[in-house]
Amino acid sequence: MKVDSLRLNANFRLYFAARIVSQLGDQLYVFAVSWFVLDLTKSSLHMAALLAVNALSVMAAAPVGGLIADRVSRKTVLVVTDLLQGVVLLALFALQQTHLLSLGALYGGTVLLGLASGAFTPAAGAIVPGIVGAQLVPSAVAAGQAATNFCTIAGMLLGGGMYGLVGISGILVFNAVSNLVSAGMESRLRVTAFGTGAAASAAPARASAPPLQRALQEIRDGIRQVRSDHAVFALLLVNTAFTLAVMPIGMVYMPYLFNVILGSTPVQSAFPQASIWIGIIVGSVAAARLLRRHRPERLMTAALLVLALHTLLMVALTAGWATLGTSAMSAACSIANGIAGASASFFIVPLYSLFHARAEERFRGRFWGLEGALRTGAMCAGYFLAGVVAQRFPIYAVFGGVGVVLAVLCVSVIRLDMAAPNGKTAAAG
Fold first, then answer.
1. Rg, the chain, Cα only
2. Please, how many CA atoms are within 13 Å of residue 213, restricted to the half-sphere of its CB?
3. pTM above 0.70, yes or no
4. 9, 24, 63, 395: which sits with the fewest CB atoms below 10 Å from its CB?
5. Sign of dihedral through CA atoms 338, 339, 343, 349?
6. What's the pLDDT tens digit per position in 201-240?
């Protein structure tokens, strides 16, 4: 398996470009809509509630989206959901132009965008082997992680400037166009039978049951199939706990530390936050290469151990920040967070490569639907939980608690029996 082979894959380049275009528009929109809600209401509660409503909509739609991805063409799901998001964004733009874009309309649009995203995500995950082939999946996962985090960084850096120049209207149009362009690219994808969703037709039919009952039963069948591979199901739960504990570091704890506790400038806070995503991009490339020679669970264990050590370093830094000073804290946290971001990639890339290798084709969409629901729910809960504990406990104690969770997860991965029940190898590459 060579990264160069992935670069030469015209089909993957098209898919990769579509994801970059769409995700960049999404990240700009997330930044802009947060500022717009603050401008409109002056309420951080409404801003947080809007983000939570989006996450809950994604979580609710993901299992159904997974079922759809197993029943119809996954490429069609990608195209249709991108088109739907483009239409919703253009409708919000029309409301803004007629001065009718209220908070209620934003909540409604956010729910629709979340539902479309919840249907999109399982199909996007399930289609990857059908685009690149099984051997290139680890490199494709690494490239996807790098692209996602590049768009996150670019969205942070460009969002403020674009919002100041073109306002919410311009960003609504930009994101709508990005989704429509992405849909056009996805319509040109060539997908092999492995990854089309057609394999689901072999599932037992329940024609006598009502449609809703059949759908619920098929979702339960998918969950039962995932649970039959005990190692993969355990890793799904590990990933859920990992998301709950780790995601708030960059999104909640770092801003709170530098803004509220240290009283730093925005620039001093931006570097430690951005360094996490930069570390993830660099780490994704290295993780894909090391995955050729090392088993996924070994890399995941090492990553969790390094991340646990990172939290101990953060305990020491946050306990002694008064001695260091704000500038030194910013520099030290930037270096530490870069290492932590790279380490997170050594957990994420092997984990998702293993998921691709072990998922049954006819249940692949439902697997990614379950994964998306668990991860999104953990992300939403993690942000709210972090907001509470950061204000009630010393920040060094919070980092210590995260370190304990990571150490427990490390031990859990070490103790897993990775033998596959259906004879598949645990190695992804």
1. 21
2. 6
3. yes
4. 9
5. positive
6. 444 445 556 777 777 788 888 889 989 999 999 999 999 9
